[in-house]
Amino acid sequence: MIEVRDLHKAFGKVKAVDGVGFSAADGQITGLLGPNGAGKTTSLRMLYTLMKPDRGQVLVDGIDANVDPAGVRRRLGVLPDSRGLYKRLTSRENIRYFGQLHGMDDALIAQRTEALSRALEMGDIIDRRTEGFSQGQRVKTAIARALVHDPRNVILDEPTNGLDVMATRAMRRFLLQLRAEGRCVLFSSHIMQEVAALCDRIVIIARGQVVAEGTPDELRAQTGESNLEDAFVKAIGTEEGLMA
Ligand SMILES: Nc1ncnc2c1ncn2[C@@H]1O[C@H](COP(=O)(O)OP(=O)(O)OP(=O)(O)O)[C@@H](O)[C@H]1O
After folding, report:
1. pTM for the whole thing?
2. Which tens digit of pLDDT belongs to each residue from 71-92?
3. Mind listing the pLDDT tens digit for each residue in 147-177?
4. Is domain 1-75+152-244 in CATH 3.40.50.300, yes or no?
5. From atom 1 of ligand 1, which residue's Cα is the shortest distance away?
6. Which regions form coiled coils (predicted)?
7. Is 131 exposed, middle or buried (0-12, 13-18, 19+ CB in 10 A)?
8. Where are the domains of the chain?
């Protein structure tokens, strides 16, 4: 369970995040949808404790990120916007290294790696050095690495960025599996079809603020639009930056 209250972050004169608040429940996929520059990445960075908010509160499973950031990090698996891998290491070694950072023992790491490799269909890449990996192969490795410690809450920043249709479909299946396991899944996207296809709840963010929030049906009702795409455009006030 992730709760964000009244988050603020400015870079000089740019108010990147200007009072964002929302919650993401367990066993649901929550989508943070907004055009380029809306403040999605900045909100997520504060959420996973990479960046300190100017103001506001982040709670993960009731733990306050200001009070116990390490406790929050333990409960989160994060696919950040930059997927930097150690390119001299194989995929498996990248995953193992993260497991070791979390203090896991070798047997548990091996067991989790096996399960994630199967779920993400990584059999052909798991023992290859990541140098030269395709975008899809890099994302799979970065996700497996992020989930090695079996976190209840999973945050993914634009997880399908740069993926082809098949890889995108595989990613969707994987996110649905995380939901079926009862996890709290929160991801950001500027592609409304992506969010519409997957999310139980959608938080629409524009100019650093939440402009609408709810299930797809609630958003249609709030905006008076029967088509979800029109509802998004109406909530945001412009089509700019929202297309793939
Ligand atoms: N480190 C930074 N320094 C200065 N400005 C920043 C920084 N990070 C973000 N910004 C600015 O804050 C605003 C929000 O950016 P952010 O990356 O959070 O948007 P986003 O919704 O994730 O967009 P995108 O879909 O393009 O990734 C933008 O105007 C951006 O230029």
Report:
1. 0.90
2. 999 999 999 887 789 999 999 9
3. 999 999 999 999 988 888 888 888 899 999 9
4. yes
5. 11
6. none
7. exposed
8. 1-75+152-244, 84-150
